[in-house]
Amino acid sequence: MAKLNPYLTFNGNCKEAMHFYKEILGGELTVQLAGDSPVKDQMPAKYHNQVLHSALKNDDLEIMATDMIPGGFNEGNTVHLCLICKTENEARTLFEKLSAGGKVNQPLTEMFFGLLGNLTDKYGKYWMVECDKPQEA
User: Fold this and answer.
1) How many structural domains does the chain have?
2) What's this model's pTM, rounded to 2 decimal places?
3) How many C-alpha atoms does 71 have within 13 Å on its Cβ side?
4) Staple partner for 80: which of 51, 58, 100, 126, CB 3.0–4.6 Å?
5) What are the C-alpha distances in Å from 101 to residues 92, 94, 118?
6) Taking a C-beta distance cutoff of 8 angstroms, is the pair 67, 54 a contact?
7) DSSP assignment of 39-102, as one string?
8) What is the pLDDT of residues 20-78, one digit of tens each?
9) What is the CATH number of the domain that holds 108?
């Protein structure tokens, strides 16, 4: 089956945002600037310091991102990144760190299935943080 990876578009601050996510989530980060790429001669010099492609990978997730978008940048709220946490402590820690400088839309709340909260981070990206209750045997 195909693997789903979120792909984020930023408005010139992709590199900063991806380093922020790496500090919180860990993993290996790769960043390719347009000016260091094989297609650099196909775009105006003003884009050379923009991120053409980046990827943050750890054992449990992969986030890809860019500063490049055909037709221009238009932020929307139709995509959320959902972190499924293994413990309540992990959920609370990640929620606190991701919401720093951003906006809590729904605090972490006990639901019938576990904890759930959502926030908009300081880069305007929408996140859900979830921690399911342990399954009863």
Assistant:
1) 2
2) 0.76
3) 3
4) 126
5) 16, 14, 14
6) no
7) TGGGS-GGGTTSEEEEEEE-SS-EEEEES--TT-----SS-EEEEEESSHHHHHHHHHHHHTTS
8) 999 999 999 999 999 998 888 988 898 899 999 999 999 989 999 989 876 666 666 55
9) 3.30.720.110
